[in-house]
Specification:
Distance between the termini: 79 Å
Shape: elongated
Radius of gyration: 26 Å
Low-confidence stretches: none
Number of domains: 2
Largest sheet: 8 strands, parallel, barrel
Oligomer: single chain
Strand order of the largest sheet: 1-2-3-4-5-6-7-8
Number of strands: 10
Bound molecules: manganese (II) ion
Order of helices and strands: EHHEHEHEHHEHEHEHEHHEHEHHH
Number of helices: 15
Helix content: 40-55%
Length: about 400
């Protein structure tokens, strides 16, 4: 089986529609340029029927990046109007994808759509057929797939593929699934549609399992992952792009899957997004958080300074972080302190001087959360000032 995983980025659509994340058209353009540089395969630019601004953003992105090595996607419910608007907004993109969806779970059919399974199946097929009149690349999503009767889902999947969909997305819309269950569920549809279409996943993080579920789905045969930078998205967010990509890269020996993401742009993509929306990743966020490559505990720092592989599984440079950051705090040892002094230009401290310096450092570290370089510099200068003057 093909081991190439398509990265479908939805930072500008699912991410953008969540609280604190709305973006203006120029902001979306800035982020889109970064996503193209990052090498995402498909960039979902918006939901054209949702608002004038969304239409404008998809249109502008299609004009600006429509000739680049990326597919531009737009979302549409399974109605003629939605699909037509998406087609119109995408018309300047050389490679465009209409992503049409309808809910398939009984909960959504009964309470939200008030439609029968037969009606939903018919609307899904019609929407895919109409979308194909605008582009050869049509994706169908069965909203709330993970809570849908698996036999009905298989029936819908076969029907939309027969109607011309080349990607079938089976989202865990409400973040309810767990890896073993989701894998079995994905495998059933992969077996049903064979190589006639790619099975895609779109996982939400309500139980903190979006990345784990996406990984389990890939091992079960899914070949597209929908994800976002910093994991932004509805409620608890989506599968985090930087995490899933770095899992494949770091664990190649057991996960021989390939993406074409230029991982050295991950950190700057995360930083750019943070500068546009109202919040950044939490400090302990994997890959892109402030502390992701920081080592504070003395034992860890000692090992890290002897050989980075003792406590570091990812080279920070491979994700665009300039260098491993050593935070000096009350857990730091003499070794880390001496190392920092050398970095600051104090290369000739004796063992006794380091001992004195260390006493001053720990007293300071007890009072503050992390010791800054300028504070260490001041301590170093005190030590030098105490040295006996050299006689002339
Ligand atoms: Mn979603």
């Amino acid at each position: 089986m093909n081991q190439r995983i398509q990265i479908f980025d939805t930072t500008l659509r699912d991410g953008e529609q969540s609280p604190g994340c709305s973006m203006t058209v120029p902001e979306k353009m800035k982020m889109a340029a970064k996503l193209v540089e990052l090498g995402v395969d498909i960039m979902e630019a918006g939901f054209p029927i949702a608002s004038h601004g969304d239409f404008e953003a998809v249109d502008a992105i299609s004009r600006e990046f429509g000739n680049r090595d990326v597919t531009i996607a737009a979302l549409a419910r399974s109605t003629a109007k939605d699909v037509e608007q998406a087609g119109e907004a995408l018309k300047h993109a050389k490679r465009s994808r209409i992503h049409t969806f309808i809910a398939t779970s009984d909960i959504h059919l009964q309470y939200k759509l008030k439609k029968s399974r037969e009606q939903v199946l018919e609307e899904a097929v019609k929407a895919v057929e109409l979308a194909r009149t605008f582009t050869d690349d049509v994706e169908f999503s069965a909203e709330d797939a993970s809570r849908t009767d698996p036999d009905y889902l298989e029936q819908v999947s076969r029907a939309v593929v027969a109607a011309g969909a080349s990607t079938v997305n089976l989202p865990d819309t409400v973040g309810f699934s767990i890896p073993t269950e989701y894998a079995a569920f994905i495998r059933k549809v992969v077996q049903a549609i064979g190589d006639k279409a790619i099975v895609s996943v779109h996982c939400h993080d309500d139980l903190g399992l979006a990345v784990a579920n996406s990984l389990a789905a890939v091992e079960a045969g899914a070949r597209q992952i929908e994800c976002t930078m910093n994991g932004i998205g509805e409620r608890a967010g989506n599968c985090s792009l930087e995490e899933i990509v770095m899992i494949f890269k770091t664990r190649q020996a057991v996960l021989p899957y390939e993406t074409r993401i230029n991982t050295e742009h991950l950190f700057s993509a995360s930083q750019l997004l943070t500068s546009i929306i109202t919040f950044g990743p939490q400090p302990n966020k994997a890959i892109v958080g402030d502390n992701a490559f920081a080592h504070e505990a003395g034992i860890h720092q000692d090992g890290y300074l002897k050989n980075k592989s003792t406590y570091e599984i990812i080279d920070p440079k491979s994700v665009g972080v300039p260098e491993g950051k050593l935070v000096l705090g009350k857990h730091s040892g003499r070794h880390a302190l001496a190392d920092r002094c050398r970095e600051l230009g104090f290369t000739d401290f004796t063992k006794e001087e380091i001992d004195v310096l260390y006493q001053g450092f720990t007293a300071l570290a007890d009072r503050v959360k992390g010791v800054r370089n300028d504070q260490i510099l001041a301590l170093c200068k005190e030590i030098v000032a105490k040295r006996a003057p050299v006689s002339a």
